[in-house]
């Protein structure tokens, strides 16, 4: 393996944004277009209800004529420096990270007497203790006597340490664990004692959280050793490293959607192994996922007492120095927060098996090692930040230390480049990479669609397209009250501009306080003037760099959406599933209910009646309904906003039935707005009854006709009129 020495140099970092999925618009509405010259971008803007029943709508902004501007964008170059040290192999399975505390036995006040009088008499022999570990390492965590621990919230274990010469019956190798997650420590502890150590990899067993460990041999005795890594035997399904691979892979795939993008990944393990720049997504992913970094060139600082942070700076500077231009170049320093060397101090060589070597045990050991190393990393980063923007991000329990966060903030290119993983909106490593990608694309592109959503609406953020960033803007609303609105920024990349147009669809929902106007209202979908915001003008526009390098902006007026007073209402439809039925058979009917109003309906009753006696329809049972009156009526317990229900029923047709049978269904629902006036609806349908198989038509009697003809004159002269009478009479032959 080749090694390259570089002098200590520096970095920066970034923060921002959210990346989310796309929701399409289903209806059209009024469209407004911007006025622009022949050389500029044209912006079209529309809004439409997606579901008026639950006040959900979509705002659509479409930028046309963009290719000649987007094709000038500089491709993106990214240096992801990823922590793949053994600490990232720690178990990251949900339910395995309950924090418990521990401290040495010597932390107790009067520990010598407690140990001698209460603990030693209860200890198993060393051989017996070793056999406990052979059966199950959990059995090596022993209970304390009730005099010391009346609630049974602690365990003690003979723990692995540095010394090979051990005294099994000496208290200095035993540790106390608080296994019920109770932060209150046992008493009496020595005054001023603050030497707690916390364990995260724990398993809930019989009501207590036992730290995951294994039995090992050390100094001739069996000892209990903590296991932070993924342990299949304990049901560990995932590790931090696997989540890192997942988030990084998603980031790489998204990055290479941008034409000309390139990446130079580096692995955070003692020194850094540089892969060189690549535009091959699979090669970039395999570098981390398949640990290809182990076969690449290694970059180390020019001294052997530094930290992984310093090695990260050296790697990033090496990558930057390979570029002809550093425009749109970004570095991402991702770590679990351990500022450790990760390589041997004495030899200066990378040692990936060493996790927390720092300065412990070295000549001239300095207790302030952490702050010293952090200062070195910050100094080095100052050099790198002159060449590239540096994002810093952290993941893992170590990042709960304020000092770790402070170091990452100082290394970053500013507050906007530091990703605070403690944020509620960031729940995973994938979320961290999405946030970085969103902000990185925003900074790398020169054309943006910007939309201020008006004070009447909230955004459904999960429906925004990848790359969008959402900011809140403080305003004074039309009621004169303090309020916030949302500003959405959508970067248009060179790849998007290839078909000369790009659309942004923003799903919104009307705020509760505006949903029940006394009369029809028209609401702006965007915060146009005179509505208040942090800048004048219209709420939606496209900003871009013109052909001559000048800043340009094209805007469009906002469309309006109408909102009606919220009145409860429902639709009732009925149809015969077969238009014809046989006498003596059955007829099936279907009933359709739709809540088309602005209120939830409850206890809606359906009754069906035929126009002839002796025919009864019985409703079929279904979920969410109650059959009443022996099934001749049905009560729908709840019909939510926009909800549709299909019910069915069956009627028995009498054997002697014939002709057309009509039936009417009546629906009645209590009016939540006016209890004295329930809502009533009717629907009709009919069925033609055919003769049954046992029926035949009555035979007609045999009939004949007589025809009698008379005239008023027997003789007539030419020109005279004759009048005839014709009589037709029916004859019944049977009667004859």
Number of strands: 42
Overall structural class, as computed from helix and strand content, comes to: alpha+beta
Largest sheet: 9 strands, mixed
Share of residues in helices: 10-25%
Q: Low-confidence segments, ≥5 residues, pLDDT <50?
A: 1-37, 352-369
Strand content: 25-35%
Give the oligomeric state: single chain
- Rg estimate, integer Å: 41 Å
Mean pLDDT: 80
End-to-end Cα distance, whole Å, is 127 Å
- Count up the helices: 9
Based on CA inertia axes, which overall geometry fits? extended
Question: Can you walk me through this structure?
Answer:
- β13 and β14 (221-226) form a beta hairpin.
- The strands form ten sheets. Strands 1, 5, 15, 16, 17, 18, 19, 20 and 21 form a nine-stranded mixed sheet that branches.
- It is extended, with a radius of gyration of 41 Å.
- α4 (240-255) runs parallel beside α9 and α7 (369-384) runs parallel beside α8.
- It is 14% helix and 35% strand.
- The protein starts with a strand and ends with a strand.
- It is built from nine helices and 42 strands.
- Mean pLDDT is 80; it is low at 1-37 and 352-369.
- With 736 residues, it is of the alpha+beta class.
Q: Main attributes?
A:
736 residues, 14% helix, alpha+beta, single chain, 42 strands, six-stranded mixed β-sheet
């Amino acid at each position: 393996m080749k090694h390259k020495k570089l002098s200590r140099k520096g970095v920066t970092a970034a923060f921002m944004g959210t990346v989310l999925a796309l929701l399409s618009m289903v209806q059209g509405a009024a469209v407004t277009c911007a006025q622009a010259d022949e050389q500029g971008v044209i912006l079209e803007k529309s809004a439409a209800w997606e579901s008026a029943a639950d006040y959900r709508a979509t705002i659509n902004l479409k930028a046309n004529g963009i290719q000649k501007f987007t094709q000038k964008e500089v491709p993106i170059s990214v240096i992801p420096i990823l922590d793949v040290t053994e600490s990232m192999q720690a178990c990251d399975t949900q339910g395995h990270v309950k924090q418990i505390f521990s401290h040495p036995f010597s932390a107790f006040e009067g520990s010598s007497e407690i140990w001698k009088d209460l603990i030693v008499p209860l200890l198993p022999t060393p051989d017996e203790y070793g056999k406990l570990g052979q059966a199950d390492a959990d059995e090596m965590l022993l209970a304390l006597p009730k005099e010391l621990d009346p609630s049974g919230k602690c365990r003690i274990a003979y723990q692995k340490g540095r010394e090979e010469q051990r005294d099994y019956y000496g208290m200095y190798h035993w540790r106390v664990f608080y296994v019920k997650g109770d932060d209150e420590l046992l008493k009496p502890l020595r005054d001023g004692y603050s030497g707690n150590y916390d364990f995260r990899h724990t398993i809930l067993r019989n009501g207590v959280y036992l730290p995951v460990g294994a039995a090992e041999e050390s100094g001739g005795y069996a000892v209990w050793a903590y296991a932070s890594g993924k342990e299949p035997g304990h049901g560990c399904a995932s590790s931090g490293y696997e989540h890192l691979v997942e988030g990084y892979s998603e980031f790489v795939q998204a990055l290479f959607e941008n034409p000309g993008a390139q990446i130079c990944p580096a692995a955070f393990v003692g020194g850094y192994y540089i892969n060189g720049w690549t535009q091959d997504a699979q090669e970039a992913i395999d570098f981390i996922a398949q640990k290809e970094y182990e076969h690449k060139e290694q970059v180390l600082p020019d001294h052997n007492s530094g930290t992984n942070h310093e090695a990260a700076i050296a790697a990033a500077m090496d990558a930057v120095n390979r570029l002809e231009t550093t425009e749109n170049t970004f570095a991402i320093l991702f770590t679990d927060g351990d500022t450790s060397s990760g390589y041997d101090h004495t030899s200066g060589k990378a040692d990936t098996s060493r996790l927390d070597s720092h300065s412990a045990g070295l000549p001239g050991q300095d207790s302030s090692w952490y702050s010293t190393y952090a200062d070195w990393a910050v100094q080095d980063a100052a050099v790198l930040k002159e060449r590239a923007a540096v994002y810093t991000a952290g993941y893992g329990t170590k990042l709960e230390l304020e000092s770790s966060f402070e170091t990452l903030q100082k290394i970053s290119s500013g507050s906007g480049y530091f990703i605070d993983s403690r944020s509620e909106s960031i729940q995973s490593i994938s979320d961290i990479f999405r946030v970085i990608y969103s902000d990185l694309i925003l900074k790398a592109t020169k054309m943006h669609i910007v939309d201020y959503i008006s004070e009447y609406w909230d955004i459904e953020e999960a429906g925004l397209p990848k790359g969008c960033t959402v900011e809140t803007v403080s305003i004074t609303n039309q009621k004169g009250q303090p309020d916030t609105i949302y500003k959405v920024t959508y970067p248009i990349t060179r790849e998007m501009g290839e078909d000369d147009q790009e659309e942004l669809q923003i799903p919104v929902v009307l705020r509760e306080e505006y949903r029940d106007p006394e009369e029809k209202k028209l609401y702006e979908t965007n915060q146009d003037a005179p509505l208040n915001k942090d800048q004048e003008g219209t709420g939606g526009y496209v900003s871009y760099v013109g052909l001559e390098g000048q800043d340009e902006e094209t805007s469009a007026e906002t469309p309006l959406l109408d909102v009606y007073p919220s009145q409860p209402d429902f639709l009732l439809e009925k149809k015969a599933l077969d238009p014809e039925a046989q006498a003596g058979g059955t007829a099936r009917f279907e009933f359709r209910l739709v809540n088309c109003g602005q209120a939830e309906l409850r206890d809606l009753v359906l009754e069906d009646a035929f126009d002839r006696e002796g025919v009864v329809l019985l409703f079929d049972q279904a979920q969410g309904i109650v059959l009443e009156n022996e099934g001749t009526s049905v009560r729908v317990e709840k019909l939510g906003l926009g909800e549709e229900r299909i019910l069915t029923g069956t009627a028995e047709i009498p054997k002697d039935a014939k002709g057309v049978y009509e039936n009417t269904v009546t629906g009645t629902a209590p009016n939540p707005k006016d209890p004295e006036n329930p809502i009533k609806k009717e629907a009709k349908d009919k069925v033609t009854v055919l003769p049954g198989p046992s029926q035949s038509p009555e035979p007609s009697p045999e009939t004949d006709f007589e025809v009698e003809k008379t005239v008023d004159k027997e003789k007539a002269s030419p020109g005279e009129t004759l009048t005839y009478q014709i009589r037709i009479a029916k004859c019944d032959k049977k009667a004859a």
